[in-house]
Design a protein that fits this description.
The complex is a heterotrimer of chains A (559), B (378) and C (450). Chain A is mainly α and 559 residues long. Chain A is built from 24 helices and eleven strands. In chain A, a hairpin with an 8-residue loop joins strand 3 and strand 4. The longest helix of chain A is centred in the middle third of the chain and has 21 residues. Classes of the chains: A mainly alpha (559), B alpha+beta (378), C alpha/beta (450).
Amino acid sequence: MLHSFWPVRIVAITALLGLGCGSSSPPEAMGGPVAMRRLTAAQYRQAIVDAFGPEIEIVGRFEPDNRREGLIAVGSAFVAVTPSGFEQYEAMGNYIAKQVVSEVHRDRLVPCQPRSRTEPDAACTEAFLQRIGPGLLRRPLVDGDVQTRVTAAAAATELMGDFYAGLEVAVTSLLIAPDFLFRVEVAEAGPGFADGLRLTDISLASRLSYLLWNAGPDAALLEVAARSGLSDPDSLGREVDRLLASSRLEDGVRAFFEDVFRFDEFEDIGKDPIRYPAYSAQVALDAREQTLRVVVDHLIARKAAYRDLFTTRRSFMTRALGPVYVVPVRAEEGWEALDFATDHPRAGLLSHASFNMLNAHSGRSSPTLRGVFLREALLCQKVPPAPADVDFSLFNEDDNPKYKTARDRLAVHSSNATCRNCHKLTDPIGLGLEVFDGIGRHRSTENGAPIDTSGDLDGRAFADSVDLGRAFRDSPLIGACLVENVYRYAVGRDPVKSERRLLRYLEGRFEDSGQRLHALLRDVVMSDGFRTATRPRRDPAVEEPAPRVAALPAEKEAT
Amino acid sequence: MRNHDVSALGLLAALALACDSATLGGSEVSITQPPVRGYVMARWSEMIPGVDPGECPEGINIVEADQYPEQWATFMAARQRIRAAGGYLRWDDERLPPDACQDPLSQPDPGFLTLDGPATVYGLDLDGVVSRRTGSSGATCAHDDFVDHDGATGIDNQFWRLMGCVRGYRPNDLVDRLQESNVSIKEASYAILLEITGMDDAQNDDEIEVQLLSAGAPVAMNAVDDVMAHVSITAHENPRYHNAAARGRIENGILTTEPVDLRIKVKQQTSDNEYWLRAARIRAEVGDDGRIKGVVGAYWDIANLFSVLNDQNIGDRPQGRNAANARGFMCAGIYHAMPRVADGHPDPETGQCTSISTAIVFEAVPAFVIRTQVAMAE
Amino acid sequence: MSPGITRRRLLRTALRGSLGGAAVTVGLPFLDIFLNSNGDALAATGAPLPRRFGTWFFGCGMNPSRWNPTKEGRDFDLPPELQPIAKVREHLSVLSGFSIILAGETNQVHRTGVIGTLCGGAPTATTDNPGPTFDILISDAMGSTTRFRSLEMAATGVAKDSFSRRSESAVNPSETTPLSLYTRIFGPGFTDPNAGEFTPDPKMLVRRSALSIVSDDRRNLEAKLGQSDRARLDEYFTALRQLEHQFDLQLSEPPPLEACSIPDRPNETPVSQDVAHVVANHELMTKVLALALACDQTRVFNMLFSDGASRLHSPGSSDNHHTLTHEEARDPELGYQPEATRFVMHGMEAWATFVQILASVPEGDGTLLDHCLVMAHSETSDANSHSVTGLPIMIAGRAGGRVRPGVHVRGAGDSTARVGLTLQQVMGLNISSWGSKANETSRSISEILA
């Protein structure tokens, strides 16, 4: 669980200082409690594609996800299903089922012909269930799964005089089943785990494939799991390598970074048309996709170091994004690659329109929101919320001609001690991005005054926004934070105390690999923490928090 | 080259483009771009001067229904009847006189009122002299020049003499309203592009080149319903609409060009045609906001002008007659009036002028002109 | 024994087994975004009235500067050309600024606007008459539960004045007189809708059975879970039981249609494009339509007040509305074309009358209009320039509580496909996006929703 640094708690960063100093054998670790996680919208969609193919249309509204401690992957273990959400699941499931058994798709998806089109056929119904059921429920079917559905399908067939009406019931029932909508992890006692439990092979298979592909296990992985193959490290290693080598790794990496970057907030984004006439829904869509493309290209296609994402000149562009970046785009449709010249103000992730439009207000930029995002999402530091009794009228200086730039306006905050403690965490780095306006367009002045983007990131001075990217690239917190985020994302919870040493080991390995994502993902999966568990959690409120790995550095002078 | 804050130029020069999106890891070659500023037209309007009604002392031009009232009454009644029954009566139906908008000699000349007095009109002095009808050597193309709002004399705009007493071209009427709503830009099929090459200083530069060309696509609109700036827009696939670049200069912020012939694609509503504007010159101001505003003065080829006005169609149904009614003139009349006011490009044998001076006011916003491989090769 | 008898008996048995004598029911399957706020309310009041959808067309648009409200939201202003709707403003929302995105397609005068709004995309050629229009999509989704799939009416008296088409060749012709409309609905073939016998929809029963399967698995799953996850599973099953209850309501007999009565037979009336005739016929037809809806004879309708390129004219004038928009001079004092604008006002007054008539029929706890969703639209904004930018659109009715009227929403150049998408979703279509090419959209207009 994240700490609230209010007042700012100063935690030594000794853990960080030892980074990269050789990696001995992995420490023993015991994972925390298993989780029951609700599928995200993307995971639901992928499950339907995997089971029935991309031709099947999915229409409906998903229940909102819940971000917890910075990640939806963690929040998904806390959300339930509401009545209105369940109605949606049923309507979506029924619509999918109708398509699956329709004349257009049945020949492809139903592996047998019924004896009669108008009468029940238990054998064919069962064959169909065996074909789609294990993939949807992410486990082999048991007798109960099959029998109730064969019986209900027969009743529906008799009522409607249509064999396929029965199959429709069977499909719908799978798509609204709790063990489809939730990934239910199960742990069991095993040899060598005296104090705790290990994940069953079936649960491990899901954890693995959701981490790497953001999807349920494929048939091959499920087959290995069904014969307890994942308990054997060699066999597990082979499966990890197979999944890492697949093109589907891109889905997993995209899902992870969408979560870390809080890109779900694009659902609610809106901009003032008069201040930002170049903004449109398409611009927002493309800005989000642009960042994911850069990440995937950099980390997967090029297998480059994570830290270099903060300085890379490589980007991708569409005609819709062109006016925001003020660059020519040759391709009339789709994406084209582009490398910004070395003297161009665009360099690295932090210069992307996506972050800058997301972490801003509808009518203006926000150094504070940007600073909070950078601290929390990329450096894994917690910034406390503004106190409830703050008098914002003091600082609403937008229209005051005395204050031309955001830096002028925010300077007012430092005159107030209560404000200063937090704003000094966020504003200096956020002001480094002030050359990007509320939709991420570059500007060099605000209200006629030049924008000063110099500042300091925890003692490292930077001259401008490009140099801020270099400061992030050089920060030891960047790699450590990614490791922590991958781990939390993988297990769906914050690390427990016993996993702290494991995380430090993983950080060392990550640095040794030259910050290569493939190596990190493999190390996480092969670690004890990923494969073991304690008993299911009782109440999240009484869980023991562990100290954070990345903390704010000690301040030079107390104020 | 001066680096300009707002324009596309500075950023463009700072960019190295790698256009092949397929080769993610491929080699990247920096392409040095010439100092080019691109623009897309956000307004493009025939000038409608705000003149007094008194300037047409004989009144305004009549339409066919005034000239042939009985035939038109018969036709309209039949048309109403046939449409009620689900049919359609074409505008070249034989109940009417022959369609002069398709064949201008098929009707006798009914006469045509032109605006003959003095007026204050935007435009350019295209022929370099202050012309007068009276006292001239009697050449066919003699004409009276106008005075511009800023007092400039010698303004050539015979198009305004032609249209000055046509109802649809009067202030507040059809053409004025069309230009006010700017549908000719917003709802057109093809945008108009402008490129300035070699401009080192937006205030004074004695050697630049200016090219007007049609785009292969329309403008994009922004969130406040203005033409979006800084879009990338591909030049028209047909090199016919990539006009020759005109030599030009900038003096104290005013850009002027040497004459060059222009063909500009026009496709909107019932019109699918091109403008042929001859010996066109530009006079414009490059604004601090990156926009450029000015006037294109040119000689409009009269055959092309007749066609632009009257070659209107819905599918295979000619609509020129309908359009002439809406604008307020008769095709047979304007056909004979055009040579009378023509002031450019005299026929070498007869001396008859074949083009009409005109002025188009424009406003353009920065854009990136993208040339396809085909267009670049040409 | 025939299969039919078997099924009916099965159905009865199944109903007895699963329903336990629930006395109320609800309308069509609940869907999407609307469930949230209304699902419970409807089930609780047990007002199972059908929802209807209609369009109301007027030709030749308006004068944008005199029609578009300047203020957005609920306190919007009524500029001169919207003054006639003052008396019904509580029943409708005004959508301004929604456009056909041409994206290079030619604006085909008087066609692109209406085809764009109804089909979600600009036609590509003068011969391109794409279908289906979205009223057809809505009537398809409703299924053939009523006697007429839809009703088309033209106050102009011209059968071919209709925009409702399934395809290029399948145009639904309009009824042309109040009498012919009356005869079609209330003439021979009309049966009292309250006299029929209720048959529950077996499809709904089948759908419900999927829920029962899941309930059976509960114990098995619970055993694997910790305490807090078990609580989350409880919430899941609570939600499931609530949906079962909703389905049960839909499987029980609906109450009678109290508002249904047979109107007086209208007399023969003169039919022409004379605006006085059109206004009178429009009102008579609307009255017949209102009772046709109350008697559940159809749930989809399309009323045309004047055609695209409107030929409405005033007696003695050689001009009609359309020719006036092109040929009449703009009055320099007024700033608009006075004669042409008179027809705009006739249209807005007729629209207000239409809304008033539907709102005057009591139905359930409210009025017939409360259970309708009607889109008024035109093919141009400024007819003079044939502009398809900022088309005039109004939405009347509450669609059974899913829509909250009384707002002005500015589209800021967005495609009118957003309107079509939203209305289809309100009417229960399972779609997340609609429209073609540049007009395609997945953004519904949430401001008009309840």
